[in-house]
Each structure stands twice: as structure tokens, then as C-alpha cells.
Design goal:
By secondary structure, the protein is α/β, with parallel strands linked by helices. 55% of the residues lie in helices and 13% in strands. The strands form 2 sheets. Strands 1-2-6-4-5-3 form a 6-stranded mixed sheet, sandwiched between helices. A two-stranded antiparallel sheet has the order 7-8. Strand 1 and strand 2 form a beta hairpin. The N and C termini lie far apart (75 Å).
Length: 288
């Protein structure tokens, strides 16, 4: 690279605006204070020691890999992936960072953040579960669709989301690494009133997952607790809610669908004789 080319590149990099592009390398840089956090970032905890190590490395070697950002509806640069690098750069007092600017949807923004963290094994089980739950509730993805996005088995996704049924104190124990997601699945087998005490016992006695599962079976048998009845899978629940919404929009009334195994019923609700006749007329017309 010639000195003249390098000079032009540096001029571009140190322009006064928040965004500049080096015409020689094609790399875009942004002022760090112009990048806002990823609203969908699933990771809530950072290893402070490792972050400091990365910051020291950046002081010596610079930032070797760009972060990914997107422009949101307010024309702000919002982080998509690379939060650890961004936080380390702030810690190292670096004012600008190389970026790749991509146009993506909010759903893709969450997916990118999840995949990046999973590939690096940076998420704890509760953070991962909450991210999957958000994909399900906010974007309507089934557990099967989530598993395809993140490259995991559907049962793994479903089991992780089930952890969010646990008490907040138990979830904190998982996040702090005091118990594992395997222990948590054993805890879910016992009645809610016994779960906190059971979790503390697992940690105190440093039980293996197998020991915890065996203890859970004995506790259930001792208390004569029936196993929970099989409920609708999340995929079925999501589809039923979608059908209820479609029928509500079509017939302008509240609709409820109940299903057990392959049987169930569809209920239409009305508040007057007129509403009932309107629903019946609509149903009649749809069959003609």
C-alpha cells in the first residue's frame, strides 16, 4: 500500500462525522459513542476479568474483527453482534471501532445475537431460555423453528424454556453457576413448594445430576404427588392462538379453541341475539 493511499485512508478514518469509510480497505468505522446497545442482547453478565484481558489485547493489537451494526428506525446505529468487543474497546479508551453495517429485521437482530453467543458458549441457561422465549412470544416462532435457527434439537429448546417456570431465586442460582440446567430439570419434577429447598440441598451437598434426579423421584413418591398431566406442546399452543385470532378477525367475535390429544371444541362467544345471528349467518355463507 502506498503512502498516498494510506494517507487518504487515515483522512477517511478520522473524519468529523460518526461514520467514515476507508476507501482503500473498504472498512467502515464508527465513533463508539454513536453506537447504541442491542435491545435484543440476551447476555446480561460479562466475565469482568476476561473483558479486561481483551481490552489489554486491543491496546496492543487493535481491534481485529469488526462488530455488526444496523440502522434503526430513528437512524441510530444499533449493535447487532460484537458486544464484548465493543465493551472491551470502551474499557481500553478506544474512540472508534471497525463495523459492518447490515440492514436486518428485529427478529434477525435477536437471532444474530443469540447465535453469536451460543457459538462462543457465552450464554448461561437462563439467558438462553429467555432469548428463545422472546423468539416464541414476540416473533411467533415455534420451538421447532427456533431449533432450526440456532442449530439445536427441539427438545433442547423446549427444556430450556421450561426452566423459566422456576422461582427467580432458583434461576439466579443457575445464572451464578451454583446448579446446572440438568439439576434444574430435576427440580421441576418436584412440587413448587419444595423446589427452593431442593435447589439449596443440591448446592449444599454438591449432588450430581443423576443424584438429583433420583432424589426427585423419591421425593415425589414420598409425597404421593401425581406426575403432571401432559399439556399442549408449545407448537400446538402457538397454532391454536393463531387460529383463534384468524377466526376472531373473520367473525368479529371472541373464539376459544380447546384441544386434548386429537379431540376438542371450537367455541364462538356472543353478547346478544343479534351477534349470534350475525355469526350464524357468516358461518352459513362461508359454507355456500
Amino acid at each position: 500500500m502506498s503512502r498516498e493511499s494510506l494517507g487518504k485512508g487515515l483522512d477517511a478514518l478520522f473524519s468529523s462525522g460518526p461514520e467514515s469509510t476507508d476507501r482503500t480497505t473498504g472498512i467502515t468505522t464508527l465513533k463508539i459513542d454513536s453506537i447504541i446497545p442491542n435491545r435484543y442482547q440476551p447476555r446480561k453478565f460479562f466475565d469482568v476479568e476476561k473483558l479486561a484481558e481483551l481490552a489489554e489485547s486491543m491496546k496492543v493489537n487493535g481491534i481485529l474483527q469488526p462488530v455488526i451494526v444496523t440502522k434503526n428506525a430513528d437512524s441510530q446505529y444499533e449493535l447487532v453482534a460484537g458486544e464484548r468487543r465493543l465493551e472491551a474497546a470502551k474499557l481500553a479508551d478506544i474512540s472508534e471501532i471497525p463495523v459492518i453495517i447490515r440492514s436486518i429485521t428485529p427478529q434477525e437482530q435477536l437471532q444474530f445475537a443469540i447465535i453469536e453467543n451460543i457459538q462462543r458458549e457465552d450464554l448461561n441457561a437462563i439467558e438462553e431460555a429467555k432469548a428463545y422465549q422472546q423468539l416464541s412470544e414476540e416473533f411467533g416462532l415455534t420451538h421447532t423453528q427456533i431449533s432450526e435457527v440456532v442449530g439445536k434439537e427441539r427438545t433442547t429448546v423446549s427444556n430450556l424454556i421450561r426452566l423459566l417456570k422456576l422461582d427467580d431465586k432458583i434461576q439466579i442460582m443457575i445464572m451464578e453457576g451454583k446448579i446446572t440446567s440438568g439439576h434444574a430439570r430435576a427440580i421441576l419434577q418436584v412440587p413448587p413448594d419444595n423446589q427452593q429447598e431442593f435447589a439449596s440441598l443440591i448446592y449444599k451437598k454438591q449432588m450430581s445430576v443423576r443424584m438429583a434426579e433420583e432424589y426427585a423421584r423419591k421425593l415425589v413418591a414420598k409425597n404421593g404427588v401425581e406426575k403432571p398431566k401432559k399439556t399442549l406442546r408449545s407448537e400446538d399452543f402457538t397454532r391454536i392462538k393463531s387460529w383463534e385470532k384468524q377466526l376472531h378477525n373473520e367473525y368479529s367475535c371472541r373464539v376459544n379453541i380447546t384441544k386434548k390429544n386429537d379431540k376438542g371444541r371450537i367455541s364462538f362467544f356472543f353478547n346478544s341475539q343479534q351477534e349470534m345471528e350475525k355469526i350464524l349467518e357468516s358461518l352459513k355463507n362461508s359454507n355456500e
